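Human: Note token order:
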Amino acid sequence: MGHMATLNRCVSSITKRPGGSHFGLRTISTHRVLLSGHNRWSKIKHEKVKEDAVRSKERSQWARNIQDAVKRNGGDLNSNAELSTLVAQAKRAGLPKEIIERAIAKGSGVSPSGDALETVTLEAMLPPSISAIIECQTDNKTRTLSDLRHLVKNIGGTVTQTSHAFERRGRIILESESQIEEEKVMDHVLELGALDMEVGEDQRSVSVYTEPSQTASIAQSLAEPLGLNIRKYEIVWVPRPESRVGVAEPGSSTQLPLEQIISMTKISVLHTPADRLDRPDS
């Protein structure tokens, strides 16, 4: 009885008038309504948000890796062994065919239909108070800007100037098959006049930041003497020190809007002041 969602209990009593006639009927009803499944649904919903965030991050990383492989050695699976391997792994991981094809096209500088792509940039403030610069490659600038503005508004953001929170910098990502000797790399970085460096958590990659005009030359000057491979070098927006915010955890109020932006597959790069966010440009 205690496990029923609703409990009805009726108690009736009959009184008699003097002389034996019935006086009346009194009925008492009590109801206990349980909030069936409410807490369970909240928990399931919270877990789903986390799972969606992880899935979005994984898809973005697969797409970015495929684009980089195409930029290095072309978009032909038969002649680009690295790309062929990545595509096979992505398929096994469940990456949809259309995302793979779009990533190969982006890496080649064209749309899936073969039209040339151009870069579109949108500055916005995302909730709770995150400055962002969103960069896209598209074959339809007007449509993409409209889609982006709608998405920013939909998640509670505002399209506004935010570039004051960032600096334009060159970024070089170098990789090694063995553990990187940080002090040795730092000596070369300082000698070449680079601005900053950061060794990856696995100790097999290093990101070096430079003035935009020095990016290509410093990349070559670092890779050859140190025996490192250039994964890529590019010009990016780097947050100014006073603009940085803390690490965004999956499912947090900071991470959720960013994941919604990242899930829009037209986006090539999302720059924010959040440290070590899982972004398409990481």
Strands lie at 6-16, 22-33, 118-126, 130-138, 158-159, 166-175, 196-199, 205-210, 229-239, 267-271.
